[in-house]
Write a structure and sequence with these properties.
Blueprint (H helix, E strand, L loop, with lengths): L4 E2 L18 E14 L2 E12 L6 E8 L4 E8 L5 E2 L5 E4 L2 E8 L2 E9 L6 E2 L15 E10 L2 E10 L2 E9 L5 E8 L3 E6 L8 E7 L9 E6 L5 E8 L10 E4 L4 E3 L2 E9 L5 E8 L7 E4 L10 H4 L7 E9 L2 E8 L3 E8 H7 L1 E2 L1
Antiparallel strand pairs: 1-26, 2-3, 3-9, 4-5, 6-7, 7-8, 9-10, 11-12, 12-13, 13-14, 15-16, 16-17, 17-18, 19-21, 20-21, 21-22, 22-23, 23-27, 24-25, 25-26
């Protein structure tokens, strides 16, 4: 068993704490933050989801950012339009092709929240990362932050009508940003880079979202320069009838331990109940799986995890390790941010070894 200590202050950040960046919009989510330690602060790189306010319940609005003209267009849909499926509040689908997303109902970008104690955060007024090219016109989501030397590499999901892929930027000071473009093309997401080279290679986890043959499972790739990735290998599969039977993906940046690389990953059921589990990879060859958790180490139990914009979701993009304490920051119900502390040794002992 892994004991979980949820902070009394949870949720740490909610949409009501965020002033909208766009006029006429409302913040519906401040969640799935990448985590970094910089100088004497803990930084949350929050995914902020804003949607245009609709005064008519029969009208659904969809924002799309045109990077060539620097304009945000709002498109209106009538709920009685039979050409579209409005059943998922996050998106507008074509009714004749149930898996085809036409538009999103919100635009996401990245804003930084800062804390000295890891519990009480102040939030920057302006975005840190905002859509910057046509591959990001539907927004940018779910960043992961990997520090290598004095550089922080930030991978995030970029969305546009052209698809969903993994993009990367880097920074040394969280002010000046260098854009590296899309490093994993559509359909792909959940890009997580390891914090150091292994036998001379960089490694990254990714999750192809296959539309024909195959399933949404975790793969691993390697690189000489963090930009061009190859030797892609399938890492772990879905497990029928278990907590991770619907889809899986990398979560926090892998943690180096004496037993292997600990990956805190998310898994969901076909009913979209998201939990966090553990995966252990070989120290010298991360493509080799050493152990995996049969049960979640964190699952939706608190009210703020079970109820929200999209309930029954815990989803971590970042953690901080201090001795035996793993401080897992995680999104709850696709709405807010929370934090829980777990024992590193208890997580490692909880895994099933092969």
């Amino acid at each position: 068993m892994v004991r979980v200590y949820r902070y009394e202050q949870n949720p740490l950040i909610t949409p009501s704490d965020i002033k909208p960046y766009h006029e006429g919009f409302e913040v519906i989510g401040a969640f799935n933050a990448g985590i970094a330690k910089y100088k004497d602060e803990i930084l949350m790189l929050l995914r902020i989801a804003e949607r245009p306010i609709s005064d008519d319940p029969k009208i659904v609005k969809a924002p799309i950012y045109h990077t060539d003209t620097d304009e945000l267009e709002i498109i209106e849909f009538h709920r009685d339009d039979e050409r579209y499926d409005f059943s998922d509040p996050r998106m507008i689908r074509k009714a004749s092709h149930s898996q085809e997303i036409e538009y999103l109902t919100s635009l996401s970008y990245i804003r930084i929240a800062r804390s000295k104690d890891g519990r009480n955060f102040t939030i920057d007024e302006k975005p840190f990362l905002y859509p910057s090219n046509k591959l990001e016109s539907f927004g940018i989501e779910d960043p992961r932050v990997t520090q290598i030397g004095d550089t922080f590499y930030i991978c995030f999901t970029a969305l546009s009508p052209l698809g969903i892929g993994g993009a990367m930027v880097s920074t040394k000071d969280f002010v000046t940003v260098k854009h590296h473009g899309m490093i994993f093309p559509p359909e792909n997401k959940d890009i997580v880079i390891f914090p150091e080279k292994v036998n001379g290679k960089y490694y990254a986890l990714h999750r192809p979202s296959l539309k024909s043959i195959g399933k949404p499972e975790i793969w691993i790739a390697e690189s000489d320069n963090l930009l061009y990735w190859g030797n892609h290998q399938h890492l772990i599969s879905l497990r029928d009838g278990m907590w991770d039977s619907g889809r899986i993906g990398g979560g926090a940046v892998p943690i180096k331990t004496d037993r292997g690389w600990l990956v805190l990953y998310h898994g969901a059921t076909p009913e979209n109940r998201y939990c966090m589990g553990g995966l252990l990879l070989d120290l010298n060859n991360p493509a080799v799986v050493v152990a995996r958790s049969d049960q979640p180490i964190l699952e939706p139990e608190a009210d703020y995890e079970k109820e929200g914009f999209f309930g029954d979701v815990v989803f971590s993009c970042g953690a901080i390790v201090e001795g035996d304490v793993v401080k897992m920051y995680y999104g709850v119900a696709d709405t807010s941010m929370a934090c829980a502390e777990l024992s590193l040794e208890e997580i490692l002992d909880f895994l099933t070894y092969y």
